[in-house]
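Regression test attached.
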Amino acid sequence: MSDELLKPDELFAKIDHRPPKTDWMSTPVQIRKGMYCYASNYKSVEYLGLPNARPWNPLDDDWKLPENWQEIIHQGFKERLEKFRSFKIFMDICVRCGACADKCHFFIGTGDPKNMPVIRAELLRSVYRNDFTRMGKILGKIGGARPMGLDVLKEWWYYMFQCTECRRCSVFCPYGIDTAEITIMGRELLNLIGLNIDWIATPVANCYRTGNHLGIQPHAFKGMLDFFVEDVEDLSGINVEPVYNKKGADILFITPSGDVFADPGTYTCMGYLILFHYLKEKYGLDITWSTYASEGGNFGFFTSHETMKRLNAKMYMEAKRLGVKWILGGECGHMWRVINQYMDTVNGPADFLEEPVSPITGTKFENAKSTKMVHIAEFTADLIKHDKLDLDPGRNDNLKVTYHDSCNPARGMGLLEEPRYIIKKVCNNFYEMPANTIREQTFCCGGGAGLNAGEDMELRMAGGLPRANAVKYVHDKYGVNVLSCICAVDRAVFPALMEYWVPEVEVYGMHELVANALILPGEKRTTDLRGEPLPGMEDKADE
Amino acid sequence: MATMIFETLIAKKKAAIIKKWFGEVVDSYPADTSKFLKKQKDPFSNPVGQTTLHGLEAIYDELFKGMDREIIISFLDPIIRIRAIQNFTPSQATGFTFALKKIIDDQLKKEILSKQYTAQFSQLRTRIDELGLIAFDIYMSCREKVLQLKANEARNQTYSAFKRAGLIVEPGDSRAGE
Amino acid sequence: MNQKYIYSLIAVLALFLIAYVGSEAAGLQILFGIILPYLAIIAFLGGFIVRILDWAGSSVPFAIPTTCGQQKSLPWIKPNAIDNPTSTGAVVLRMFFEIVFFRSLFRNTRMGISNGSRVFYKWEIFLWIGSLAFHYSFLTVILRHLRFFIEPVPSAIILLENIDSFFKLEFITHIFQIGLPGFYLSGLILLAAVTYLFLRRIFIPQVKYISLAADFFPLFLIFGIAFSGILMRYVIKVDITAVKELTMGFITFHPVVPKEGISGIFYVHLFFVAILLAYFPFSKLMHMAGVFLSPTRNMANNTRAVRHINPWNYPVPVHTYEEYEDEFREKMIDAGLPVDKMPDEKPEEITADQKKEGKE
């Protein structure tokens, strides 16, 4: 909802009103409620030792910037042009063909033309031309150049935090220009003068200190998992107690902490516990959780490459300390972009680990032989392929499932078939959403890259509209009532999105579906993980 | 007999009126966006435009049929639901319903002046008013939903419960809470 | 918004006048026929090389391909080798499809069905066709022009010319000849494609919104080049022999300006080409080279199997396990979590902490 209230006589006049056709460069930014996230808490910025920690408010005129902020931005820009060929090339070669324009979920949902990916990049490019190209200096505004100023800075901040770095536009760009890369650079520059959002800065500080985004201390982390163990015992009679910080275990398991604290991710977490228990009992799987490396997600990635590296370092450090053979990673989106494309480069080589081999099937994960980290979808798909799991997909027969490809595993990795294989093996009713909304063309949940706060709910609802629209389609057509996913941010974002757009659809993590179908030896299960009766068990569940 | 003819008339003018009406709705977006909303036909690439167009057509039909509240809601809701989270004031988000009056006045000037269908037009006006009120109801329920979701987000932070229990340290704290 | 193309249009018209008046009235044939073309080539080659070196000078710290298909993981899952390449060969293939067929733009073309039954194609397919038409007709035109720089004309070029003028619009009898001399399709397509690319910048709202003056300038310029070329070939005929004398002199570094047979329109054509060449390295036209260097397209998605090296990877402050355990040791012990050091092993850490606590 817009802030301004109109006078009664303006009401109807306004309905006919067409906004002036001004050039985007001449249209100053208006920071709207519901579309932005709160400014970073200075304590978090300070704890991380990042620049210009101070309380500030985006709605104020004065952003309390350092006096030489323009100089800092200019130098930072220059440094990044030298350090990142991607940045320099993407600044130079865009021909503004417009192929990306209508590919962005934020443009589609908000209708704000500055959310076209090309304009998001032009926000930076206009300054680049002015500061770093001769043509821009000579031609000025005609040449698409403009000097850095407070208005431009505020525009940067507003729109760099209206991009979820989902890379959908990059798929359609004839030169592969990746707006995620532009946004990453834009946010790095903003962080140089202390302009971050709190939903990113505080989780980063927490993660740095306690190992996870929520600031859960080790004993509380264990306490949360203990709750899940009790819950699982209540519904199945089986004790799935995990192992923590075990030295000499075969495998270290790391997953986003979001699944430890918030529904429906908690059910996915129970799913892991059940699967690992099954594998331990049946095949002697030796796997450990860590309270220190208790966060797979990496909001540092939404701050700067350096912060990403600082947070990611824990994974290898902990694997080394515990002396495990390799690392297994849980269901998460951006965590996997970091692991797949960055981790080995920034914190490797992981020569203290072994090339990952499934201890149960003997499968060598050749594709992870250097990073030594395997995605749990790869791990579980391999188990099912080798018939190592005792599955009864009929237990999910009350669910009509569709699957949302998370942006990062889809476009920064290519993990498309493994989850589908698993879901089809554990669910009998599976329906795909339309082709131009899945796989590499998947639409973002609207809350990635650190934008899943509460205060920007309108932005999230708008950004998630294209995804919700596709879910609504399969809901109306096939009666789909489950949106499954392999990302903790999805699990945090989708329940609200579905509640607004398609209230009849619930959100499930993939391993919750696996655990529902997995038959534990000696179990007495009449309900699924959510306490709902299993299909055909309705009578027994009541007892 | 007149009713029959009135209905034929309304059906004949439908395409032109809907086109204008749709134009009114999407023109409330920035000019460049509005053209996109009009042109892009794929419902998955352009949910805003396609939802709106589809809804307006159905609502138009219903205005001359039974004016069934449930049916109206089922088509009006998706349109308002989108506008409730976009950059509109409440009046902008819902006011397009009233725009239909002016469009019909323009498109059926002759017929209105002929006084042949006074009763029908009078009923139509009442129904458009009703439509506006329904739009406002939907708008408010959407806004309430958004606010409720915001509140839920805050509450769901089991985080805060943890904090109260002293289980969480914050970056500013000098030492882990006791 | 109109300003943007008006500026570019005015610029191109001004260039036209300069060349036409300069060569026809002011008699500056040597300037327009020899000096400026040489300078333009120097600017083009120099600028191009500098630009490439500049790009190459920036490092590629991370392997960030955009994956558009299934990854190579388990042996029984079929990977998409082209859209998610893991080997150099596959990357080359991906780049080949990207550069030769504009594969990503092609992705833009989707068929849709509206209102339940009506099938339609979206404008995106026209962008793909338009771009292909533009680039390939331009390439053909350039290759055809090699006949002016090579003597004798290679058979490959003659073959190309024959294909290009396949649809001849002429009647030749032993008595008379009607129609145009072998009409080159490429020139016509180039003109049509440039016009299309211009019109979409005017009429498609998003594209209009994002267009800069720098997007219109090369379009007008290329239109001018194609138009003047067509004019020379079919309407205001120039003496081909004289032109070839000039071009051969140019390429062999024995520049001459033929006294007769070359009109002002030729110098306009040449001047436009010179401007395009000189402008090229400093503009978005460098996408021609940049596309080869785009890290989201030219890298393999094998970073979990082969470590990518970041040349400027530097150590960063990290929060170590030891620091973590020092902060939470007692709570970990209480919760039954294993610790590396028992409290009494290293009392000074705790004391330091307690001291700090005491002060507050």
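Expected vs. actual: identical. Residues 2-164 of chain B form one domain.
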